Amino acid sequence: MTLKDRQENTTYHSGKHRLSYRKLNSFLECFLIEAEPQKSLAYLFAPSMNASLMGGIWILSAVTLIFLPQKELHTYLFKNEAPVNFLIVSQFLLFGSAYLNMICGHGEFILEDKRSFNKNSISTWEESKNFFKYGLIKFLLHGFILLIPFLPFIMISAASTQMPWNEIVRGMTIIYSFSLLCRLLGFTTYLVWGQGLIGYYFVRLIVLIFLGSSFYFFDSINPFSQIYGLYQSSNEPVTTSKDSYTVYLSFMVIMSLLLSLFIQLLVQRNLPQE
Amino acid sequence: MLHPIQPPLMGHLKKHCLIFIITITTALSSAAEAVILMESSIGFSDTFQVRKWTPFSVTLENRGKLIYGTLQIVVRSGNEYKKNLAESVYQQKVELPANSRKKYQFTLFIPSSVHPLKINLLENGKNLREETFSLKHHFTEKSMVLILGEKGNSYLFKQPADFSKPLSVRSQELPESWFGYDGVDSVVLQDSVLKNLNKPQLEALAQWIQNGGFLILSGGINYSIFADEKIKNLVSIEVLGLKRVSRLDALQEFSGHAFESKSPFLILETRIPGSQPLLTENEIPLVAEKTSGAGRILFLSFDFQSSLFQGWSGNAYFWDWLKKFQPPQEPSFIKLKERDILHALVTSISAEFPASSLIFLFFILYGLAARFFFMKIQNGQRQNILISGVFGSCILGSIIYFNFAHLNEVQHSRFTLLSKHGQSRSVHAQQWVAVYSFSETTDYIETEIQPFRLLESGYSKDLKSEPFVLEEENQQQRLHLPTRRWSHQFLKTKSSHQQTLDALVSGDGENLKIVIENQTSFDIKNGLIYYLKRLIRIGTIPSKKRKIIEFKTNQINQYEILKADTIGTMASALMPQNAHGFFNKFQRNLMERILDSLWTNYSPKKDSVLLIGWIKPDSGKTGKEMSGVHLDQIAMLEWEIRPIPSP
User: What counts of helices (H) and strands (E) characterise chain B?
Assistant: First the structure.
């Protein structure tokens, strides 16, 4: 059953909200629930995906508990030091979310037999549709949804550290944008090399090189440095912190757009000529 | 035929034009600078005492256009090697019409004479004039005695062991804020000078006396000034007549022989309500003492600057005798260490981290809910409302919890030490304010003009701190205190209040009776009496009520004696260890230090008792705060109650 068939056979609700419910339902089925999960690059409700999320929840629970402030609040005030809770939790989340999105983009969650390494065969919706109309939207949505289960850890660690809302949003934006970039990188690698070992190692290497070189040469675009910058401002005012955040965000947006364009070019080769 | 200008000539022309433009620009900029003239003076006769508040005046002369700006005085303290440099900025708005001259008065706290003062006149962020004022040749370590009279220098205190510095001062130098007298030991004032003082100066002088100042006022032939209403606010003196004498036997004790004069010596016959005569001559008070708040006024019925009196051999001994009547400079009985107070303020903060056990339980619940949620999804049961509800509620709950657990950006804790002497209505108050900040912001505190100063805390890291700004406008003061995340700062101020607290202590040798009348609007909680080295708990003295404490003196032994090795156990017994809330935590954290200071610094007297009690003031009564700032307050009353002899 194709997606279109499924849409047409959807059961309608009665009443004046019929049209909006239909649209919402089709939207959910198109991007999230998916009629043919085996054709999804990273099916949201795949067992392996759920296992990864559960693993992330248990790990972050342990990390949050371990790094909860052990001393009394006044001790930190006395020393003009902020608890490191939020810093540690958000760094762990950054790493986990980026890795998860990277392997999602690289197709390591594809439900079909992974032994089929034929990169010339089109196996996913993301490869067969206009990337800006489908793939990119799906990536944006998935990236957002994959962060939701980890919100309690961010909230509890932020409460301990007395982070204001704007800095929490800034932190989440840093994590989200880097995760999206990793996903796009993963998908690009998948389109070029498929699910082969070359692509497997290449995407990991490229992310590591980016993180290492940006840390040493231009830490404004390094997401771990950006997260650290949120903590650092509690002890010594980083006068350029807002500027570096703008630089970081601009870099992520530009790189994401460039990668999206490249992906669209790659995908366009596979689209049927009209 | 015109020939084109030769290149070498062209070069010379350009060079001369450039020189001309530079000259004109320099002249114009010099002219702009010369528009404002600045003249500064510090303290009294250009002398000030370090680590005290001192008056500082800046006279601006504007020879240019109208200026609306800000006049700033930057006071630096600290040490570059210790990396604890700090700046305090005192500023006032200035309005200088064209071709005008105005004097601006400041009262500055100068911690050290090492760094010069920086004076800036700013308009729209632009520095119109900048000057430095060196402090090196102006400071003294001694407290000052100000002498104001028609004649110039008159050294009154000739004893070499004297620790004060006498200064002959003009009336214009007297400050307009009471704490400008911080470095002043006493003021000796001739009556003729009073007419030169303006209303703010007289008010400041009166308030300084109320807060523990010592004024020696002398009357002479210009006694008509005492009828002036503005002088009556300072001291009410009724002059009954003028007497001419040639001999004063009352002064014999100072020189071994009577004061004799060939020319007539004038003395005033006066009546001062509420005063006590200290020295009389034929029932005419030569020296009268009047208590005013925490301070004292001595009135001399003669002109101290008359040549007859100045030439008298007992002069120096007379002045030394007068000094004995100076009110105690250290208002506190217990003399708590500032470090202990600040430590107690920070350790008693009411904010706490969330309990880790609760967080652990929450994570267990959340993990299980997530586990079941994903299981149901995999089994195709996506519409399991219960599991989805629990899972979603946990996420939503964490966001709601964050909003509740999130504290105000800035929090204040305030401790006031109220010291009361005997039956005096006046209570001397010293106040410490701790400002805690969890974000990078600027805290604002608006109060009436008080000597707020930023303490150099030994607890903070050696970070370069932003300047603390004190702005005065229309008899109000606004403090700008930049803060960092997870930082603390301490402020200190002092003042005096009138409190309706009365007490009687009476005894007949066998029984002791203490009656305390609390007519204030506050309860005095956890009261303690310290008598003959023993601590007696008296509980709460409710507001608008009276409390009677009676016991037999031979039963005093039932109360534990305060000793060095029992301080810890007594402190634990007085305050429970599991105290909650700022009010109780602060008492618990400071109690041991109070008992220690009591044992070390206070000598109990047989004829007086020391009452210690705790007050929870209402928010906002001691100053206007920014809305949304959480404020914890506590005050401690120490009151030395002296007995009235039983009939």
Answer: 11, 33
pLDDT in tens, A42-54: 777 788 888 899 9
- Closest-CA residue of A relative to B371 is A54
* Contact predicate B427/B496, CB 8 Å: yes
Neighbours of A261 (CB within 10 A): 12
**CA nearest to B535, candidates B574, B586, B492:** B574
Return d(Cα B634, Cα B417) in angstroms, integer: 9
Closest to B379 (Cα-Cα) out of A45, A225, A82, A166: A45
Cα radius of gyration rounded to whole Å, chain B: 33
Q: Which residues of B touch A232 (CB under 8 A)?
A: none
Alpha helices, DSSP H, located in A218-240: 223-232
Read off the pLDDT of residues B398-451 as tens digits, 9 standing for 90 and up: 888 888 877 777 888 899 999 888 777 778 889 999 988 887 777 788 877 788
Which positions ≥6 away from B548 have C-beta within 8 Å? B513, B514, B515, B516
Predicted structure pTM score: 0.81
Asked whether the beta carbons of B56 and B149 are under 8 A apart, the reply is: no
Tell me, yes or no, if A201 comes closer than 8 A to chain B by beta carbon: no
A65 and B374: CB-CB below 8 Å? no
Question: Going by C-beta distance under 8 Å and a sequence separation of 6 or more, which residues neighbour residue B76?
Answer: B85, B86, B87, B115, B118
Q: How far is CA B107 from CA B48, B470, B596, in A?
A: 11, 10, 36
Cβ pair A77:B370 closer than 8 A: no
Asked if A235 and B461 come within 8 Å (Cβ–Cβ), the reply is yes
Q: Is A230 helix (H, G, I), strand (E, B) or coil?
A: helix
Distance CA B42, CA B55 (A): 6
* Spatial contact of B175 and B208, defined as CB atoms under 8 Å apart: no
Residue of A73, A111, A230 best to disrupt the B interface, most CBs of B under 10 A: A73
Sheet holding B284-292, edge to edge: B164-168, B143-148, B184-190, B214-218, B295-300, B284-292, B275-281
Half-sphere exposure of A252 (CA within 13 A, CB side): 23
Q: Which amino acid is at B156?
A: L
- Lay out the sheet containing B86-96: strands in order across: B126-133, B117-123, B67-77, B86-96, B468-473, B476-483, B441-448, B624-625
CB within 8 A of A86, min separation 6: which ones? A154, A157, A158, A160, A161, A163, A171, A230, A231
- In this predicted complex, what is the ipTM? 0.84
Q: How far is A271 from chain B (nearest CA, A)?
A: 32
